[in-house]
Amino acid sequence: MTVKGVLVASEANETGVLAGDDRMLIDGELQHAAGGAAFEVIHPASEQVVGRAADGTVEDMGRAVAAARRAFDDGSWSADLEFRKHCLMQLHDAMERSKERLRRILITEVGCPVTVTGSQIESPIHEVKHWAEFGADFEYLRDTGLHDTPLGPARRMLRYEPVGVVGAITPWNVPLYLNIAETVPALMAGNTVVLKPAQLTPWSGSELGRIVAEETDIPAGVFNVVTSNANEVGAALSADPRVDMITFTGSTATGRAILAAAAPTVKKTLLELGGKSAHIVLEDADLNAAMPLAAMMACVMSGQSCVLPSRILLPRSRYEEGIGLLATMMQNFPVGDPWTPGVMQGPQICAAQREKVLGLIASGVADGARLVTGGGIPANLPVGYYTEPTLLADVDPNSRIAQEEIFGPVLTVTPYDTDDEAVAIANNSIYGLSGEVSGADVDRAFAIAARLRTGNVTINGKSHFGIDSPFGGTGQSGLGYRNGTHGYQEYLHIKTIGMPE
Ligand code: ADP
Q1: Nearest-angstrom CA–CA distance, 281 and 352
Q2: Which of 13, 83, 196, 469 is deepest in the core (most CB within 10 A)?
Q3: Domain spans of the chain?
Q4: Which residue owns the Cα nearest ligand 1 atom 26?
């Protein structure tokens, strides 16, 4: 039984599975796809179809973009800061009320273990409030004083203005978090938004659309959600001349396609792409602390994290000791049904992703790596897309498994002899998202961190990541920043006005 097309929370089945809204939000109306098409959503822990999502078309996307354009050009959203704060605080409060429903949808779509959902549910809800408050206090008009010019002194004012219509394209690994991270600062900055969630996680987007439509005063067209099973719908968003900016998180391959599609209209792009981060373990590191943590980080999201330091670089003097500690943690890691409290690693999100992970592991072994533990499907978990926590040692830094993003619970280990060699191996990548350094001498660790060509570095497990600090990649890991003042300013352009004293 459904209520307005929405399964209510009490209808979650005994395993906790809960289907999300099968409608999209376009121009203020919750609606099905133009031709009525829908696609299936599969729960990765059971391999069962658990519901459907609207299979939006390029035509639906066109209507959503038109609505966002109208709302930006003709509405008062971009000019009414107080109203924007009011609406986003409503969104925050409504998400708080829907928190358990959102959590169940997340677990249903992604297979994320209930025990580790905090960063995917509580954090994004908190971030809605953060951006509402941050945006309300932001200084949108700045007087930079008098400047000398050949024609005499001129006062210069900087006016921070919304970019316009923002297209937000999100991936499936942390869907609610990224749906919020890509849209709420954009909205608070005065833009209108069209969100295109990933095929595998449509409900974390459609639920947001439902909450916006039913529980906030956000005007029609300001926030739109178009779910679809077709990549061409995201491609249509990134090519549409009515869109001023694309914010995207996902693979580097798709990032390149988006850049190319954005080029004819010189759209602003904010891209968070792939990573292949290295963790340099220095000789004096506390391995008993660093190695279990490194193994845990590789497993908790089933390795489906772009910032994961998946290449462990160990000094030859402590090589087998480090491998032993990593292996012990991985062999004892609680893998299993995501609904069971205490389980820390669930399944991969889909069959194809697990195939990709297993294929990369096989390529590593074929290229001469030593399989220390894992490498296959857990014998006790034949149903669900589970992968064993896997450790590969003696990995050649130039081999495929050391160069390609795996997105699975897999660590590779490579020995090194000198700091210079460790840095060279770490920087031997097309990516530049994150990195990690472990060592007792923090000054030395900091000096190594400074040599890594990445956007972010963790030293001794101290996280670089948070709403109040900029996060972005170098190399083929992306363009621009999320979070912090820099992240907010991505959704604004600066108009410099010269005027009389
Ligand atoms: P993955 O390969 O891990 O599925 P992608 O980077 O392909 O990740 O997908 C991330 C998001 O990009 C999804 O929302 C997907 O629909 C979208 N997408 C895929 N191809 C394109 C494209 N050519 N243009 C715009 N968006 C795309």
Answers
A1: 33
A2: 196
A3: 25-32+57-273+478-497, 278-466
A4: 234
Ligand 1: centre distance to CA 94 (Å): 29
The yes-or-no answer to whether 25-32+57-273+478-497 and 278-466 have a common fold is no
Q: Which atom of ligand 1 is nearest to the CA of 228?
A: 16
Positions marked active-site = 272, 306
* Class of domain 25-32+57-273+478-497 as given by CATH: alpha beta
Q: What's the 357 CA to ligand 1 centre distance in angstroms?
A: 18
Q: Whose CA is nearest to atom 11 of ligand 1?
A: 171
CA–CA separation, 389 and 300 (whole Å): 10
Instruction: List alpha helices for 338-465, DSSP H.
Output: 351-366, 400-403, 419-426, 442-451
Task: Look up the CATH number of domain 278-466.
Answer: 3.40.309.10
Q: Which two structure tokens, joined as six digits, stand for 130? A: 């953060």
Ligand 1: residues with CB < 6 A are 169-171, 196, 198-199, 231, 234-235, 238, 250-251, 254, 257-258
pLDDT tens digits, residue range 401-442?
999 999 999 999 999 999 999 999 999 999 999 999 999 999
Q: Select from 269, 102, 97 the least CA-distant residue to 180.
A: 102
Per-residue pLDDT of 43-62, as tens digits, reads 999 999 999 999 999 999 99
Other C-beta atoms lying within 10 Å of the C-beta of residue 243: 23
